[in-house]
Specification:
The complex is a heterodimer of chains A (about 250) and B (about 400). Chain A is an alpha/beta fold and about 250 residues long. In chain A, the strands form three sheets. Chain A has a nine-stranded mixed beta sheet, with helices on both faces. In chain A, helix 2 packs across helix 5 and helix 3 crosses helix 4. The termini of chain A are far apart. With about 400 residues, chain B is α+β, with helices and mostly antiparallel strands. In chain B, about 50% of the residues lie in helices and about 15% in strands. Chain B contains twelve helices and ten strands. In chain B, the strands form three sheets. Chain B has a four-stranded mixed beta sheet. In chain B, a hairpin with a 2-residue loop joins strand 9 and strand 10. In chain B, helix 9 packs antiparallel against helix 10. The relative contact order of chain B is 0.11. Chains A and B meet through helix 2 and helix 5 of A and helix 1 and helix 3 of B.
Chain lengths: ~250, ~400
């Protein structure tokens, strides 16, 4: 079985976002594997350990992204591919690049995170499945592979849904799928010797037009600061009256 | 000159930092109160490979150089020191002897199980009458056929309550003084081996230190570590090897204390403004940061020198002395900045303050380090005089 994991490097979830000249500042930032993608990596490694598989991790990014790929290798992935394309900005273009890499590869299972914690679009993996004409099951909390049949369990509004698919297929990981491991120190040493290939867009036969952004980012702003709370005083009747006024005002 | 770390060491630093932050630090208060590191934490630490730092890859460890070990110890120093001590004592004085002086057979027998943490290591030199004056030990080892019979008592043996493999120093020839001491690999289940009373300590809760007794304990001759009569020199080498790592642990603790103190100084309002705006507090923090920066530079320089196989006797002694003294000064300032909160046991600062104290005593007191430094200076002087 060949399992390919699509992963992204993101800011640490505890990182404070700062804007400098209308852009998110990246200096001194702690980078991690997108937590949902980390579930995907862990699931792939468990498939490898339990059923025998080779695991390839793929990421679109820049040189800094190799750090996240090395972590995935240290967790237990066999090889890593960096598609070096730091200028790609929309999900469609990133999906195109991944599809260009995957289209002549053979694989059984594609895994990715449900969405990334930075931009949160949740598009890339599903676009890849669509372009490759593969079935996909999104946001799985349990995945079972038997032969060429996959069963994914998804949580939906207080209930669970069980969906089956025939491989090859794509699955996106939801929180609860597994508990990602820490890469062990010996495996960090071994990861140094595992193959990490860097490809450019032209290596993949893509022109700038192929990956031109269809979506333009107009502005980046921080969420508005939370307003200080308002204290209502007086007798219960007076308080009720004030509260009603505030609510009516807010609803208008 | 290049101060950047290899990428795999950066990766290890991130992993250990993550692990400490999520798996150890949340339990620090519990470990302190119960004086016990939960088995689950030790198991996870073993899975991570934290018990095989000194042991070569061919015996199942990672075989890190001193630079690598210092990176890991620095991160481990940022949490409860008792936990760090279990790991530090095992990887340092507990296993380095076998790694450095063991025969192939000894390494094959002991190191693989020590690398996984199945067998914990300990180092047994100190006795009731022999601390800093280590050559005065009284434990005897008498050869009888193909074995040695050991009798004596050791005190303050870190990890003794759960260790399986002990590097033990004993006198094989009382007429030769320090040159009559031999080191042995002793297993916990050798008949005549007994662990005594576990000491109650001021700090390092979670790490346990006990007395051990040898009562006509038989040790097979193949368990002599190194050569007969070289035990004292072995012990000094093992201790010297541990000094950089110990200073790296002090460094991590200092960094933790500076972080906490800096944050507290900005949050604590007195006289209508954060106490950080008081110049005296700024100066405390500046002094802490300066000493920490010097310590960091020194730790990694000595680690690098060690890895280049340079003679570091003087520098390692200076580093152990400086690291432990800085840790105590930083902890003291951290308590002062935190005020009353620094004295409260529900907050970690006072714990570090107590844990810091032993670093000036164990693995060679500050005073002994000064003796070593002076002795090396004297040697250097004699050498230049000879050159003239």
């Amino acid at each position: 079985m060949h399992v390919v994991v699509l992963m992204k490097q993101t800011f640490d979830t505890e990182e404070r976002i700062r804007l400098v000249d209308g852009k998110i500042a990246e200096d001194g930032v702690k980078w991690i594997i997108n937590p949902y993608d980390e579930y995907a990596v862990e699931e792939a490694i468990q498939l490898k350990e339990n059923q025998g598989a080779t695991v390839t991790v793929v990421s679109v990014g820049n040189e800094n992204t190799t750090q996240a790929l090395r972590t995935a290798l240290a967790m237990g992935a066999d090889e890593a591919v960096l598609i070096e394309a730091p200028d790609l900005s929309d999900e469609r273009a990133i999906a195109k690049a991944i599809v260009a890499y995957l289209k002549d590869k053979s694989f059984d299972v594609l895994l990715a995170g449900n969405f990334s914690v930075d931009n949160g679009a949740g598009q890339v993996a599903i676009r890849v499945a669509h372009e490759l004409g593969l079935p996909h099951i999104a946001a799985v909390t349990k995945l079972t592979i038997e032969g060429n049949q996959a069963t994914g369990v998804r949580e939906i509004d207080g209930d669970v849904q069980t969906v089956t698919a025939t491989l090859p297929a794509l699955f996106t990981a939801q929180q609860g799928l597994n508990e990602p491991r820490y890469p062990s120190l010996p495996n960090i040493m071994k990861a140094k010797k595992k193959p990490l290939t860097t490809l450019t867009l032209s290596d993949l036969g893509l022109s700038n037009d192929d990956v031109a952004a269809k979506v333009e980012r107009v502005e980046v702003t921080l969420p508005p600061k939370r307003q200080a709370g308002q204290k209502i005083t007086g007798t219960p009747d007076e308080q009720a009256e004030q509260l009603a006024e505030i609510l009516v005002k807010a609803l208008r | 000159m290049d101060f950047t770390l290899p990428s795999e060491l950066e990766e290890m630093r991130r992993t250990i930092r993550d692990f400490v932050e999520h798996e150890v630090e949340p339990l620090a208060m519990q470990i302190e109160e119960e004086d016990r590191v939960p088995d689950s934490v030790l198991e996870k630490s073993k899975e991570l490979g934290l018990f095989g730092l000194s042991i070569p890859e061919e015996y199942g460890g990672i075989g890190l150089n001193m630079l690598g070990k210092c990176v890991i110890y620095e991160e481990l120093g940022k949490t409860i020191n008792g936990y760090t001590t279990i790991i530090g004592a095992h990887n340092g004085i507990g296993s380095v002897g076998i790694v450095e002086f063991g025969t192939k057979e000894q390494k094959e027998k002991y190191l693989p199980r020590m690398a996984t943490g199945e067998w914990i290591g300990a180092f047994a030199l100190t006795e009731p009458q022999a601390g800093s004056n280590a050559a005065a030990i009284k434990t005897t080892a008498v050869k009888k056929g193909d074995r040695y019979i050991l009798n004596g008592q050791k005190i303050y043996i870190t990890n003794a309550p759960y260790a399986h493999v002990f590097t033990v120093m004993a006198v094989t020839d009382a007429s030769k003084g320090a040159k009559g001491i031999t080191s042995f690999i002793v297993e916990r289940d050798f008949p005549g081996f007994r662990v005594g009373h576990i000491e109650k300590k001021m700090g390092l809760h979670g790490s346990h230190t006990a007395q051990i007794f040898f009562e006509d304990m038989e040790v097979p001759e193949e368990n002599v570590l190194g050569r007969e009569g070289e035990g004292y020199v072995n012990a000094l080498k093992i201790l010297a090897n541990g000094r950089a790592g110990l200073a790296a642990r002090c460094l991590g603790s200092c960094e933790y204390l500076l972080d906490k103190s800096l944050a507290f100084a900005h949050e604590r309002i007195q006289f209508g403004k954060p106490i950080f705006e008081q110049q005296i507090i700024q100066h405390y923090l500046a002094e802490m940061a300066l000493e920490i920066e010097l310590l960091r530079t020194f730790v990694y320089r000595v680690a690098w020198m060690t890895d280049q196989k340079m003679n570091v006797i003087k520098e390692a002694a200076m580093l152990k002395l400086y690291g432990s003294e800085v840790y105590n000064r930083v902890a003291d300032k951290a308590v002062q900045i935190h005020g009353g909160l620094g004295f409260i046991a529900e907050y970690p600062i006072e714990r570090f303050y107590r844990d810091a104290r032993i670093t000036r005593i164990y693995e060679g007191t500050s005073e002994i380090q000064k003796n070593i430094i002076a002795a090396q200076l004297h040697k250097e002087y004699e050498r230049t005089k000879a050159d003239v």
